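Workshop exercise sheet. Pairs work together: one partner reads the sequence aloud, the other fills in the structure field after running the prediction. Swap roles for the next sheet.
Pair: D.N. / O.F.
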Amino acid sequence: MKYIYPAVFTPEADGGYLVDFPDIPNCFTDGDDLADAFENAEDALALKLWYMEEHGETIAPPSVPASLEVADGASVALVKADTIAVRKLNDTRAVRKNITLPGWLDAVAKEHHINFSQLLQNAIRRECGIEA
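Structure field:
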């Protein structure tokens, strides 16, 4: 899934930034500078949302950025997250699936040297709009 959530970027005295996501419990990070903080924010948000999806936790809708109250000097920015990309990198286990198809179709597929696993993966990606 793809998400966009507001994050609060609070500058630190050493030039770094603390980043907090008001809508996502226990999701925060930091960075040595603003660019580093944004990159870390995308990673932290994607990993936390993936964890929540995997554990069936309720994911709150994002707040309207203008409705968030922030401390002086802090700012709000929207951060994107793609849990499908995180899944591709972290969940590489093979899962066995049984399928049923007519015998004649199995015979034709064997004649054409069809790799059923690859065919099913490609079909699921295409059906779900996931790029390889």
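Discussion prompt: The beta strands are 2-11, 17-20, 28-31, 75-82. What would you look at next?
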